[in-house]
Amino acid sequence: MHVRKLSLWSALRAPSQPTPALLPAAEARPLKDITQEARLKALGPVVVFPENATSNGRALLQLLPVFEEVENQDDKSEMHLLAFRYPFRFFSPAYSVGSQMAHLFGLCCQVYNSVVVKVLEQAEAPKVASSAMFCEAGEEPVDLDEAVKEKLTQLSRLRLTKQSAMDKRDFLAFYYKRTKSGYRDQI
Predict the structure, then answer these.
(1) Which pLDDT value is given to residue 69?
(2) Which tens digit of pLDDT belongs to each residue from 137-156?
(3) Are 170 and 178 in contact (CB under 8 A)?
């Protein structure tokens, strides 16, 4: 699995775009290369959203296997886990389906919107250096993807579904086809 760099503006617009099935090969780079570049050029933190899609905030989608491949593991990097929740009663602030303008209007009409950010203590976060690639002899290696999934589920207090970003993409294609809103397949 490879990742790509995004600007802040692109990251903010991404939830309104269909989830691509595969990352175009020209944009894909190993996570280790991106973290090393960020460290050498002092570009700031590298943020990974392992769900690869927005949801309504009531459950977690299946996480992508970010650390499955060796080229995505950088032992000099520290991992900080954060969980974002958007508590709501009637109208979810996380865009998922329908008209973007109607969603923006609904957001502006609410009296307030809130976001809860929970941060896992650094001592409890999974360590890249503890993975099978870097752990010392005699130490029990850590499956980073499983450790992230477990800690993120505990931190967010959300249940993990069996639905993935691809399932969401397929549902949206079905929804827009049924409503004839003109879903544009960008895969």
Answers:
(1) 72
(2) 677 777 888 888 888 888 88
(3) no
Pick from 57, 84, 67: which is nearest to 143 by CA? Answer: 67
CB 81 within 8 A of CB 120: yes
Is residue 187 within 8 Å of residue 21, measured between CB atoms? yes
User: For 36, which DSSP code?
Assistant: H
Three-state DSSP string of the chain: CCECCCCHHHHHHHHHCCCCCCCCCCCCECHHHHHHHHHHCCCCCCCCCCCCCCCCCCCECCCCCCCCCHHHCCCCCCCCCEEEECCCCCCCCCCCCCCHHHHHHHHHHCCCCCCEEEECCHHHCCCHHHECCCCCCCCCCECHHHHHHHHHHHHHCCCECCCCHHHHHHHHHHHHHHHCCCCCCCC
The amino acid sitting at 20 is P
pTM above 0.85, yes or no: no
What would the pLDDT profile of 89-132 be if each residue is shown by its tens digit? 777 777 777 777 888 888 888 888 788 888 888 888 877 766 66
Q: E strands within the chain?
A: 82-85, 116-119
- State how far the Cα of 129 lies from the Cα of 59, in Å rounded to an integer: 29
Token output for 49: 């959203």
Other beta carbons less than 10 A from residue 53's beta carbon: 21
